[in-house]
């Protein structure tokens, strides 16, 4: 018996002692219709994942296997059966494809980064956490933290990918942290550091949890999964992950229709991890803690922010040499921030630095400009 098998057995015994659930073995479902690579690809993935830690239940057409099969022959029927088995408690989680989550639920992916072979959580990869982009990404951060904790990362470090809205998301998360929410920021591997991440940080896995909008996360998930195969066969990583929400109990994990057997196997193991780690309970607790830290007020300030309407022409002050760079202003607010400085008699220009949008001012006006922008709510710096 290998050391790994022995370790797995002892882990299962320890978990049983802790939970008091002797004799109850975790069951993970896998639906087997819908893959671009056929039923056999999914069944092979199940065989790869087969272990003493959990049982696998296939939901789909009859196949030659020693695994349990709940026989269905149509995709619609398959998902109905999956939900029935989940809601009855017969299976604890299920890995499937093309599942429609309610608004407020998004999937949290798990990849192995190519730079240093480090695992990293991508929050999020499918679904819609909220209809407002900034709120969605803040929620994604909490979903990612909850998922990371469920797989054993006690104090996950969070980075925010440098996409539209990143600086506003950073500001919201910093407010949560200042109000008492337990959140640890990651540092970029680049020399200028910071918690707003760049492509380099994606490749090396600088944070434990990389926060992004779902559409970008979906693209990154596909690239990380299939960059070695040409794109039509996803061979790396753990899949698009469990659907996580503030009050969502079903443990449904998503695969792409292009996912190959290795990813299927890892997705089943990922499902076991989030079941044993109680990801749903952790997510609920994270939101309780976040709301104590004024989550609702912070989100309201974003979603109910009045559109600023210029009622008067703002005169541009006399031009000056601008060498002081002020970062932290979101791209969507950049021009308004410049005009805010003009209104206060400070000449400013907008620009794009290597870490994102910047406001340029004269060196002598730098500190005053920063204070003015903070007061107007354009930057947290």
From TrEMBL:
GO molecular function: acyltransferase activity, transferring groups other than amino-acyl groups
InterPro entries: FA_synthesis, Gly_reductase_pC_asu
Record-level GO BP terms: fatty acid biosynthetic process
Domain of life: Bacteria
Active site, renumbered: 354
Pfam families reported for this sequence: FA_synthesis (PF02504)
Identification of the protein by name: Glycine reductase
